Amino acid sequence: MRLDNCQGTVVGVIHDQVLVNYDGEGVLFLKNVLTRAYKIDEIVQFSAVSATAVDIEVGDEIAKSARYDVKWKGSEIKFIKLARTIRGGGVVLKIDPKGQFMFVDWKFSAAPPALVKIENIKTSTNILCPKMRCKPKTENLNEVFKVGQRVQYYAKEQAPSKHGVCWKAQIVADMEHDLITEDMAGRTYYHAIKKSEMKKLRNENTAKKRGSAESGPSSSSSSASTVQYNSSTSNQVMFEKPPNVGGYDFYDCSLEACQARFKAFAEEFRANNPNSILAKPQLEGLLQLQYLNHVEEQMSIIRAATSS
């Protein structure tokens, strides 16, 4: 089988190999067909043939890194443009009956993108929002989102899929969240933090600042650690790194440190929520998931703060 003059998006670059996403399938390009250096998120035009067992083996490393199976071997590739990422807002247009994805528009966006015209493909500017990119987290989007509901998002441009989808959400959330970004290891990550949590942090920070001003400058030996971050809708906020637990620093990733932090979390949770089903010892596995979500929220804020 052959693919001629198709479009895809670069998802992997390792050594002298490039991997392109073509509608969920990996297209492997080797050194002999590359006429320039390519970068992740570049949109390209290409031709390819079905990959052989040897091609799949050669591209095993880059395929695992990019998480796309090699299905095609590229014979020609040409740069078109770098995919854009735009922050915007819109309303929910359609939700999958099974709640696994939804589409939103650009209704409340300052600069919505123009429609891309591709021969023989009916394209759309509507944004595809997979379930795993949506906040609040849910197993079924129909339980959290409704058609016509206002949402906010970061959307990334991509090569048009077979169904004409040109934009895919990196993060999408209801209006009860703030969106933040972090740059790490050359890539941008997107997070949604509850506004109520941000308000709580701002209030705590104001109280700490007031207390600090009344007590005078702190000792240079103090172990307190604070970081700043910028959200898409809030002013700069100070966030204090969680204190040591059992003598272990928050960033200590040893098994003993992790066990100590979870133990402290579990004890506090059970003391404050004695009637919760999660407080039962036999359901400690579920409480661990609750704890991991708690840590993820903390790390999202701290990483974003230190990268700004």
TrEMBL record:
Segments for region (Disordered): 200-227
Biased composition (Low complexity): 213-227
Lineage top rank: taxon: Eukaryota
Protein name as it appears in the record: Uncharacterized protein
Species for this entry: Caenorhabditis angaria
